[in-house]
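Dear Dr. V.,

Thank you for agreeing to look over these. As mentioned in my earlier message, I'm a first-year student in the group and I'm still getting used to reading structure tokens, so any feedback on how I've presented them would be very welcome. I ran two proteins. I've put each sequence directly above its structure. The first is here:
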Amino acid sequence: MSKSRWTPADIPPQAGRLAIVTGATSGIGFEAAKALAGAGARVVLAARDAAKADRAVAAIRQAHPQAQLEVRPLDTARLSSVRAFAEAWRGEARSIDLLLLNAGIASVPRREETEDGFERQLATNYLGHFALTGLLLPALRPAPDTRVVAMASIAHRSGHIAFDDLHRRRSYGPQSAYRQTKLAMLMFALELDRRLRQDGSPVRALAAHPGLARTDITRRGDRAGPLARLAGRAIFGAIGQSAARGALPLLYAATAPEAQGGGYYGPDGPREYWGGPAPAAVAPHARDAAAARRLWQVSETLTGVRPGIPGAAAAAAAPRDAAGV
């Protein structure tokens, strides 16, 4: 049984604030965008699929007719798309209050490589978000309630950062590749918050996970066959909670005054599978500071982005050849 009674009704007023949500066209991202819009925020739906984004906007406006929404193209699997998004944003000189790094895919059955030479799950779930955050950091409003929230997973507990084969060229497994990305997202959030604090920034970074939630990620990636999709949906349909419930930890981390920088939040039920938002368990290896620094350095090399503290310029050199990393 859940002990938490926190709901979207507890989100503090968000009028005058701006939130960017990646992967906002369905599932957790859609529910988060809808809740933030309902609380008065101006929400930017950063999405790969324009048609799905338009349907999401229509659905949110049906629930909240006065919702302030924008759609911006973003494919986190492509550095060119990430850079285009960030460049357009910098040209408008608009401040960001909330950056929710939610877009993701899971368990792509066969190894795929992006145009940048990255393993597809690593690119979509982690490296694109690392680059996006680094490029947008100067646009974050320097205030204590400005937050970057990374979507992790209970799968991080059995994850491993394969520094000698990050892109799984030698040995690919759908689940092991996914678990690596979610461990990377959690380590990134914790390391980002450490760096923000060390440099005296009031901005805070946090992480969240949805437990087991019924979302499109159970399609097992865009290339999964019908049997794999059916199996994933059957499992999550039987024991998973709704996407709206799964979005609560993300929303709590983004908006609750009591949520702490460097915190990790998930459902409070058995094994953190379902329930209301509460502090979640972080596996010991996710707190390995040396590994987090190494991951950060490798991510800079792969993406060509060197994150700067809000108010400083983020590096935007062309990515280096990542062969063999």
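The second protein is here, in the same arrangement:
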Amino acid sequence: MNKRMKKSIAALFALSISVTGGAAYAANDNVPQTTAAVVISQSILQQIQIAIDNEALTANGYIKADAKEPMIPLRDVAETLGIKVTWNEADQSAELSKGALWTSVKLGEDRYVLNKMYKSLGTAPELTDSKTYVPASFVSEILHANVKIEGSTVSITSEQQRKTASTKGVITVVYDNEGRQTVRINGIGTDGLVLNIGAETVFEKADGTKLGFADLALGMEIEAEHSLAATLSLPPQTPTYKITVPEQAEAKGIIGTVGLIEEVRTGDDGTTSIRIKGMGLTEQTSSEVVLRLTDTTELINVNGETVEKSSLEKGAKVIGYYNGVLTRTLPPIGTAWKVVLQAPAEDASSQVK
């Protein structure tokens, strides 16, 4: 065999290996066993390391060109969080369950089950190297764990580790100045709770529809998921992870006054009005106002529970919400959109300062 022929045979052998993926040999014999070639997409830019509750995960994620977020391995992440994963080969979907949590994902479909409804995350699940990958936001939006993305690392904190609390309330202040954003609920002055907003705070409606900070308004009822840790100041302040609006409230253009009910009036037509004296929720709002109560006026307490009109008596501490259509009398008169009972008369021992 000449030298040129030897080179040709070697080249053919190398080409064979590149096409078949090479040969693996059993430990006890010389019978070659062909293994499938692994094709890595050229659109994958880099691997992403994953940590769950400060423990590194063996499996990695990846991020593709022009992708808005990393992709992470569904089963590895879910099972580490204690979530059972069941794969359905027939329709290429996976079911996830843990206690009251249940959701499902399907390859190629940007539809994730949340509260018995479908929610879009902007990226569909993918099959890569025989594993199902989902966008990192799946963990925060669907599995309700905290996700932090820094460079090539995705850090996940489970609910058990995060130690959160949930508080319902009605917005009394929306503050946005020089990059600092806060929302106060259930009062002003020393009352209520200040929710500090960060870059990772999620805003959405109960059905999963995305909202933004700009969608929040005075008088809107919300539920806030926040840290158990809070400042010792009055009012206390706390980092906030998620704000949920139970319903899309029509709260644009609403202003308000917080204080004590000074007088309850009943007109000849049976209409009830309350006079509130205290402090306006904005600089342009009157500190004293008379508000007519109509059949459409919502009467609730700070937890969003309906209260009776009879509880709005002299001495009760309330927040009155109304639009800007007022008379020019002193005090101005308007129609109440919503009245929040902060404290009944027997508990409201002092006026709002």
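From my reading of the second output: DSSP finds four helices and 26 strands in the chain. Residues 163 and 228 are 6 Å apart (CA to CA). Does that match how you would interpret it?

Kind regards,
E.
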